[in-house]
Write a structure and sequence with these properties.
The protein has ten helices and four strands. By secondary structure, it is α+β, with helices and mostly antiparallel strands. The radius of gyration is 17 Å and the shape is globular. It binds glutathione (GSH).
Amino acid sequence: MSIELFTAATPNGIKASIALEELELPYTVRAIKLGEQEQKEQWFLAINPNGRIPAIIDHDNDDFAVFESGAILVYLARKAGRLAGDGPDNESLVMQWLMFQMGGLGPMMGQANVFYRYADEKIPYAINRYQREARRLLEVLDRRLADVEYLAGEYSIADIANWCWARSHEWSGVGIEGLTHLERWLAAVAARPAVQRGQAVPDSSATPEEKSKRADEVVASAKNMLV
Ligand SMILES: N[C@@H](CCC(=O)N[C@@H](CS)C(=O)NCC(=O)O)C(=O)O
């Protein structure tokens, strides 16, 4: 018995596998074919009514299902008793930076990807709007990381969530020139062995290097997903 992870090689997907690796929780992987809309099939909607990855089923907890990557990170961290902060104030800090990613960085970079990379119609206002907002949010991270090593002080699920998006800034067409603290943190998180294992689940095609090598294929698959 273990945790079953439903995922794909995307920023939200690898948050869950990185957390599982960091927390050393046993898990099995079911790769979901987003380009074929497998995430909208009835069997999957019973696990995640929102029809998106990632999702997990905890077979050690009466087949309890969790969707939304932020909720998955919190569930896993609480289950393992690590990476969700220590004491009420620190737990709040983890939650603040996790919510910052879930409500800000992820959605803005996601929309930058749509308008800059995937849309056939290139709308300058939309591209600028999302790229500028993504850059602003990366600057917020940079200012925070000027004062602390990791977002909540100690390494936590807030770093995992933000790193999974921030590292693909180039894919969104957003530069990080001058954001030296962000660069330091991006490299520190990338160097963690569990992060390296987790980012290769279900395959390594979500890495920035792989994405730019296979850009046409990634764009074609994303277009299928956006129908
Ligand atoms: N807020 C959700 C977003 C999940 C999400 O957008 N997942 C994307 C991949 S990164 C997806 O499944 N897309 C498929 C679709 O839109 O049909 C979370 O954080 O779990």
